[in-house]
Amino acid sequence: MTRIKIRIGGVPEHFNLPIHLAIEDGKFSDAGIDLAWINYLGGTGEMSQALRNDECDICIVLTEGIIRDIIQGNPSKIISSYVKSPLIWGIHTGIDNSLDSYEKVFDQKIAISRVGSGSHLMPTVDALMKGEKLNEAQFVTVKNIDGAIESLNSGQTDAFYWEKYTTKPYVAKGYLRRIGEFISPWPCFMIAATNKLIEAQPVAIDKILKIIHQSCDEFMQNPNAAQLVSTKYGIGIKDANYWFHATEWATDSWVSNKMLKSVFFTLKEAGVIEGNTKGDNLVWKRK
Question: pTM for this structure?
């Protein structure tokens, strides 16, 4: 059997545990695929750039981020849904910052990992839904959560959107203060692949997706799943249970066209993509 080497990337967070479990169990290797995992601390913005630069073949990315980047020329396609439930974003500020209300964030300086990442797009969407509007001068790029903590506590920025359970240990340790939450209005994660990989290895992609979907299904049925999350990611068992029971992974490759249209419409309304842009060719259409 000819072995195929493929690079896959994602944030080092609990959502990706089903993929790591499949790697650890040798499921990809047994299928003739040497799957190399790459951690991206900078989130979807960093992964989108990695796909553009041919530094990674497949990435687990935020829905709104990859849609925006494909529209803006990223030579990639969505190849499957990954997490079907929405993401709960924690909204944070520095420990000594006087900001005390979530409703006041929209005229503040906002820390983002990168332009086009979820930490950039979600406050924009959140503002739109509350009748507010942000301008690009409000955003300060800080690269990752460590940069955000430093920025918030130095007073350079005032607010930071990041996944609630990932940031909870930082809140508990007194590095951040949470002042609110925002739930994304669509499924949170998609799987995207470069056009180069799609053209060269469509059969291998289907094998990878089949293994991922099977591992997600097994994970959702595993009575010890929350304990695994708690142990591997340092999340309290109570929080791990709440998170696990609020999260649903995809067990097939179907991507809702209505969902894509909703994201596309909202990003247009928020001014994140140009008004005359078309949202065609976002999803891999198998031949």
Answer: 0.93
**Residue 124 to residues 134, 141, 154, 177: CA-CA distances in angstroms?**
6, 15, 23, 21
Rg, C-alpha atoms of the chain: 19
Q: 88-183 maps to which CATH number?
A: 3.40.190.10
Q: How far is CA 125 from CA 82, 108, 148, 279, in A?
A: 21, 15, 20, 18
Domain boundaries, the chain: 4-85+187-269, 88-183
Strand partners, 111: 140, 160
Exposed / middle / buried, residue 20 (Cβ in 10 Å: 0-12, 13-18, 19+): middle
* CA angle centred on 183, ends 190 and 158, rounded to 5°: 105
Reduce the DSSP state of residue 81 to 3 states and report it: strand
pLDDT in tens, 173-221: 999 999 999 999 999 999 999 999 999 999 999 999 999 999 999 999 9
**CATH 3.40.190.10: does it fit domain 4-85+187-269?**
yes
List, in sequence order, every beta strand (DSSP E) within the chain: 4-10, 33-39, 58-62, 76-83, 88-93, 110-112, 139-141, 159-163, 177-183, 189-194
